[in-house]
Amino acid sequence: MKRHHSDPRLPRKLYIKTYGCQMNVYDSGRMADLLAPLGYEATDAPDGADLVILNTCHIREKAAEKVYSELGRLRPLKEEAAERGDQMLIAVAGCVAQAESQEMRRRAPVVDLIVGPQTYHRLPELVARAHRSTGAVLDTDFPAESKFDHLPETQAVEGPSAFLSVQEGCDKFCTFCVVPYTRGAEFSRPGEAVLTEARRLVGAGVREITLLGQNVNAYHGEGPDGRDWTLARLIRKLAEIDGLDRIRYTTSHPRDMDDDLIAAHGEVDALMPYLHLPVQSGSDTILKAMNRRHTADDYRRLIDRIRHARPDIAMSGDFIVGFPGESDADFADTLRLVTDVTYASAFSFKYSARPGTPASTAGQQVDDAVKSDRLAALQQILDAQQVAFNHATVGCQAPALFERIGRRPEQMVGRTPWLQAVYVEAPLQLLGQIAPVTLVEANAKSLTGILADTAGDTMQQPAEQVA
Ligand code: SAH
Ligand code: SF4
Ligand code: F3S
Q1: What is the 59 CA–ligand 1 centroid distance (Å)?
Q2: Does residue 392's CB lie within 6 angstroms of at least one atom of ligand 2?
Q3: Topology of domain 394-465, per CATH?
Q4: Nearest alpha carbon, ligand 2 atom 1
Q5: Could you tell me the distance, in angstroms and rounded to a whole number, from the CA of residue 55 to the centre of ligand 3?
Q6: pTM (whole model) above 0.90
Q7: Is the pLDDT score of 180 beyond 70?
Q8: Which of 140, 220, 305, 331 has the smallest set of CB atoms within 10 Å of its CB?
Q9: How confident is the model at residue 45 (pLDDT cuts 50, 70, 90)?
């Protein structure tokens, strides 16, 4: 951006730090888009920034506490700026802002602006108000109109893989979870708006889009014909976009995996063979107490149907150990489910009591030491499954999407269809492109590959994996 003569402070520096889920990553990008016309340019350190935004996560206690430590680190920077006669505005956005706005006002006077996930389209106005105000400016409404109607078109495209939010909020009210309170009621963007944004992204060089939503497979956006589109319908439409080679979606709820979506996994070439489908627990008692509204066997049957449609699909999941009332037998049920399903990757967490959620005050809270033991036991199995999955793909030839330059000379980092990171020696021209790679070596979290001599996108399925 060119310096603006009437305002010697332009360009202004904007530092955004993002915590939490991919949805926050998407939102942070949109915040940068919103502020760009005001002269804000992104910078990668808070020192000397005119505006710092912490885009926060409230899902577990640790995630929320990180924000206060970061604010502690920012305070001296803000004071140094003030001594120089500059103003460093500090904004807190995202789910902690939504959940703890009043507490934050008291606890962290360094904060100038508190904005929730559904109102950040008002940032330009809020920033202007914060410049004039002495106390913190606050906006944590759940406005009736959607922020998506007010956001500018996506500007900053970084690399060939992009996130696109299609659904937000949640009405499921799992008893451990803050999302229905921080993100509000479930809402789907209209199909046409999603297609338009996707076409723009592809026009800017994007080859892969990950559709985002807290419950993305519950998507039911209005179609151009006035009737609701399902996620499967949306994916089939997106797959028609020329140049959009890869489609993914996350996060899904087992109860919303409908027949058409399962079928799409077998029918839509662009839909990648990877599915994040959190189950949280393998115990029916705990699933019930969590209000997940399905049993462990429902989940097993669902996985069977998905694998029937797409045999090589890489399954991923989330697990919580030490939910209130979880007994040794309940935990053993979780281990059994994990062994039955076999995951290619997974995330697991100790239960964290979140203020205001039903589980935080109900049932018998589990000792932290017990939680730690269970987490270690679970992660040992999940890690071994990930290694086994990666090993099973060695020898396969698969198309890799080259996302970034590696650390070693001429090394590039790509993604396989199964979302594995693969390190390959490849020419720079392949950055942002898809090329066939032979997978030659598996490590715990990644693979090494070599560019295949044969042209074309042949993909051999990792036969061993699917038991
Ligand atoms: N919508 C997704 C999950 C979003 S939150 C779903 O329905 O599965 C991401 C993950 O954080 C959850 O899957 C869960 O495993 C974990 N999580 C959520 N609340 C938690 C809590 N209170 N304690 C520990 N882990 C939690
Ligand atoms: Fe939270 Fe997911 Fe449950 Fe919604 S479905 S309440 S986002 S865990
Ligand atoms: Fe965290 Fe909010 Fe996402 S609580 S996980 S940032 S929806």
Answers
A1: 7
A2: no
A3: OB fold (Dihydrolipoamide Acetyltransferase, E2P) (2.40.50)
A4: 177
A5: 10
A6: yes
A7: yes
A8: 305
A9: very high
**Ligand 2 site, residue 215, Cβ cutoff 6 A:** yes
Other beta carbons less than 10 A from residue 460's beta carbon: 13
Backbone φ, ψ for residue 29 (5° rounding): -60, -40
Q: Does domain 274-392 have CATH number 3.30.420.40?
A: no
pLDDT in tens, 186-223: 999 999 999 999 999 999 999 999 999 999 999 999 99
Mean per-residue pLDDT, 91-95: 98
Please give the CATH architecture assigned to the domain spanning 157-272.
2-Layer Sandwich (3.30)
Q: Does the beta carbon of 51 sit less than 6 angstroms from any atom of ligand 2? A: no
In short, whether 104's Cβ falls inside 6 Å of ligand 2 is no
Q: Which of 96, 183, 318, 338 to mutate to test the pocket of ligand 1 (most atoms within 8 A of CB)?
A: 318
12-139: CATH number: 3.40.50.12160
